């Protein structure tokens, strides 16, 4: 079956058409500037990316553009819409309502809508994508795969904040965690690849990308994760602050004469390694600047790696041990220098990095020595494939 995987944002939409039998990508691409003017990228398997300017006044037109590219013209990969067997939608927030993926119907849409408050930037956009697909493909089954679902197994001691309990009861203020599809995919693969006993395994997954989070996966289930009510908590990220003294908000608001919304913009968009370095949110730029002697870029990398190492230590304590530490996503899969910095602080766990093996980029590989007590490993994530698998499994 071919599964169309959709990751819909407010003005952009990423898509992949995956043949679930061979698990190969038939075509993928991106609709950008939806509702503004429109730019369309399409890449059929084995061919170059094609970029065109296409008017995309709304998401329905964007999805129609995707369907047309997939099924018409010399670069088509299917003959008609009938060859799309299912659609898998990435949905950011499922609150406490969804602890697993689910087939989409009117009730599910109503329940996702109730979670909008928890992710006002993401969930409404995800719903627009679902709505557009249902209009254009009314007979095709659709599945929602939630970023938060994998972390719904966290115990209360891990998800409750030290705040008045009524905020949890009234508003659902608690830790939810994100990147669940990636943490689930990567931890499952780690258990399989390292032949760990699924019922007795302790895995820490470091998803280090533009947005970054760490999770503690005990016996295949998430028992803690670094992102919280929103994706702002936890690690230092590309442009997000991660953990900090909450009193800083008031302090900066006074000093800089900012509203709460403006402070939130600073914390989400102008902080992290970008804010620290003043160079870039991209680790390739930071690594280059550090090599040229830029001290703030070096600081930013140090602060980032130190925070990751601290979380690994914390999660080893949370699980009372750890079998494997896994690195994934853009930085985790590619940045050997950052992995080395992180692993320098893990020798207390008996984790020994094999510096030569660590030179790996974007490939599955053990990067610790044969005598290391804890295995360190790179496992590339593949959220689209994970969504396609979930979709097929549910149908
Ligand atoms: P997103 O959170 O947007 O999905 P990704 O997981 O794709 O992010 O990670 C993107 C980030 O990965 C880039 O911003 C960059 O910092 C980092 N990255 C990608 N390739 C490399 C590389 N070769 N070396 C170091 N960092 C890299």
Short description:
With 395 residues, this protein is an alpha/beta fold.
Explain what you see:
The chain starts with a strand and ends with a helix. The chain has 395 residues and is an alpha/beta fold. The strands form two sheets. An eight-stranded mixed sheet has the order 5-4-3-2-1-6-8-7, sandwiched between helices. It has 14 helices and 14 strands. Strand 2 (13-19) and strand 3 form a beta hairpin. It folds into two domains: 2-146, ATPase, nucleotide binding domain (Nucleotidyltransferase, domain 5), CATH 3.30.420; 197-378, Nucleotidyltransferase, domain 5. It is globular and about 55 Å long. 37% of the residues lie in helices and 19% in strands. Helix 1 (59-71) crosses helix 3 and helix 10 (283-291) crosses helix 11 (295-318). The mean pLDDT is 97. It has helices at 59-71, 106-114, 123-136, 156-159, 165-171, 180-193, 247-256, 260-269, 272-277, 283-291, 295-318, 329-334, 336-344, 383-394; strands spanning 2-8, 13-19, 24-32, 39-44, 50-53, 86-91, 102-103, 142-146, 202-208, 212-218, 221-225, 324-328, 365-366, 375-378.
């Amino acid at each position: 079956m071919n599964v169309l995987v959709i990751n819909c944002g407010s003005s952009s939409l990423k898509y992949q058409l995956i043949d679930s039998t061979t698990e190969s990508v038939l075509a993928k691409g991106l609709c950008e500037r939806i509702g503004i003017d429109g730019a369309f990228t399409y890449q059929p398997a084995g061919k170059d990316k094609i970029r065109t300017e296409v008017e995309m006044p709304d998401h329905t037109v964007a999805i129609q553009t995707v369907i047309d590219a997939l099924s018409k013209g010399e670069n088509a990969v299917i003959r008609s819409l009938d060859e799309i067997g299912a659609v898998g939608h990435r949905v950011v927030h499922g609150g406490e309502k969804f602890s697993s993926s689910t087939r989409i119907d009117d009730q599910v849409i109503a329940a996702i809508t109730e979670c909008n408050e928890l992710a006002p930037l993401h969930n409404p956009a995800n719903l627009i994508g679902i709505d557009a697909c249902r209009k254009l493909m009314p007979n095709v089954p659709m599945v929602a795969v939630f970023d938060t679902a994998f972390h719904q197994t966290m115990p209360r001691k891990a998800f409750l904040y030290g705040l008045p309990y009524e905020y949890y009861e009234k508003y659902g203020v608690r830790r939810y965690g994100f990147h669940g599809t990636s943490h689930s995919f990567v931890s499952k693969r780690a258990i399989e690849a390292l032949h760990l006993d699924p019922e007795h395994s302790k895995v820490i997954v470091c998803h280090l990308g533009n947005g970054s989070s760490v999770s503690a996966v005990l016996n295949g289930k998430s028992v803690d994760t670094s992102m919280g009510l929103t994706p702002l908590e936890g690690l230092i990220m590309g442009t997000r602050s991660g953990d900090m003294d909450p009193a800083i908000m008031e302090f900066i608001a006074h000093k800089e004469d900012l509203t709460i919304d403006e402070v939130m913009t600073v914390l989400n968009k102008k902080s992290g390694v970008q804010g620290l370095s003043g160079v870039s949110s991209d680790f390739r730029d930071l690594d280059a600047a550090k090599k040229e002697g830029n001290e703030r870029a070096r600081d930013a990398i140090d602060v980032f790696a130190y925070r990751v190492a601290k979380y690994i230590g914390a999660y080893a304590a949370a699980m009372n041990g750890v079998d494997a530490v896994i690195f994934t996503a853009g930085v985790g899969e590619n940045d050997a220098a950052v992995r080395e910095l992180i692993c320098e602080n893990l020798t207390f766990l008996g984790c020994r990095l094999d510096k030569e093996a660590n030179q790996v980029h974007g490939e599955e590989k053990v990067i610790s020595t044969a005598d290391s007590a804890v295995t360190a490993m790179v496992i590339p994530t593949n959220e689209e494939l994970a969504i396609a698998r979930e979709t097929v499994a549910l149908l």
